[in-house]
UniProtKB/TrEMBL annotation:
Pfam families: ThrE
PANTHER family (alphabetical): PHEROMONE-REGULATED MEMBRANE PROTEIN 10 (PTHR31082)
Source organism of this protein record: Effrenium voratum
Keywords carried by this UniProt record: Membrane, Transmembrane, Transmembrane helix
GO MF: transmembrane transporter activity
Protein name: Threonine/serine exporter-like N-terminal domain-containing protein
Source superkingdom: Eukaryota
Bilayer-spanning residue ranges: 219-236, 243-260, 272-294, 306-327, 355-376, 383-401, 413-432, 439-463, 475-496
Similarity field: Belongs to the ThrE exporter (TC 2.A.79) family.
Ranges where the Threonine/serine exporter-like N-terminal domain occurs: 91-326
Amino acid sequence: MLDAMDGVDSESEGEDERVPLVYIDFDGFPDVEHLLMSLSAIHEAERGVQDSLRSARTRSPVAPRQMLTHADIHQMYAVHGAEHFAEMVNLVLKLSLAMMTFGQTAADTEDIILSVSSSIGLPVIHFQVGLNSLDASFHGGIVHKLGFSRGLDADKLAATISLASLIANKVGNVQGAVDLLDEIFSHRAPYGVVIQKASFYGLSVLAALAAFMGTSEDVLAVAIIMPAVMLVQSCCRRFCSELEAFAVALAVGGLTPAVARLLHLPLCDVPVIYLSPLLTYLPGSQLTYGAYEIQFGCLHNGVSQLGSCVVRCMFLSLALLLGWQFFGHRFYTGPTASAAAASMVPVNMSCMFPYSWEVVFLAWNVPLLLVALIGLNLPLKKMWAPMLIAYGSLLVYIVLLKHPAVAGGIPDRIIDCIALFIAANMACLYEYKTATPAVLAILPVLLILAPGSKVVLSVLASMQGAKLSVQMEPVLDLMLQGVAYAAGLTLALHFWRPFLRRKARKRCQQHMY
């Protein structure tokens, strides 16, 4: 689930480099409604006045890591005699990049942008969000093609979605919204770098118990491996972020046999050790979003995401196998081990569930959810409701899965659908009451379910087989899980969408009055 955690530890270019390494912002981003109204009022007061600060901002890029500046957009539309549309285009492009960078789905981004464009009076000729780029054309026929890097920042995503809802309901003005988006991009994360690193360490260690049902010895092994893994991760983010997942899996594959030998762990414990540090790199939200976007017409984007999930699992498997060759030779020396098999990565997880599911899901899931939400940059003050929603949904999921008398023989994929349906309904109810985006409570559920682990194990088994054979069942099962999650998500969101929009209009009308 790298797509969900990618960019959590990295600092955006607009942030102050002198921020302390250890800090906690309990509140997160300030109230969006009051900021938008204040910035809009300032703009109205400065209308017609040459503001040096505003002139300087026109030379800034529309978003971090972009070449296109505000001044470029104004110049493009001035040439075509449509300069009065330039600031609207600037807002729409900036808003699109913010939503995709902070974790919104492509299908929902397109829907929101069309609503915002209609509200501000900007004619849209074409708007399409791809896997890592967006294509847009507005009045005048100028085509914009901008790249972005998908990630997730829960605090900034919530602020961006709230801003989009306000603009769609005609609260504030365009310049105030542009200024507020600049503030959102540059706002520092709610946690310092040290706390973010500690949350990643804690998530990986706790995953051995709560996500992969391992033993206390597995937890110790993961705790020993993680400092080296985090060093590799930091180096990759500084010098070559494209190789991060592969390099981390390579390091995990190299260190796992050495630590397993040191602690004298059985073979069936080994998969838990190498899967736990890779939890955030396994496909989770991307898998569900891929199926979700295919369902709602974003065929190219959805198929690309589903395909990238499978290929990512293959890359992780190959990196694990390659890293295993450093210290894994003759790892298994049993009587039936051949010379080749003795150096292969174990894929048997028969040691799972040494503790009862009640202990895991009632106790260990609490700290796991806590560190997961910190890693997603959700401020402490806004954390309790998403945590309760995720906790309740996971509890229903495991009860249906482990108690046939309760489930009544319901298939596993239907249980997946039910779990996400319940999580999405509770998240939408919370959004209806508080205006907090529902996606913040849904993502932790997808992270802990970790659907890509079975595919990694299957690909490893295929790579290490005597004959080259691709086992399609786990791959198809992975996609079926994504479809099941997306179905539960879709049913809940589309039931609640008209109610949420009506509630948002009422809030905005009350604020305007």
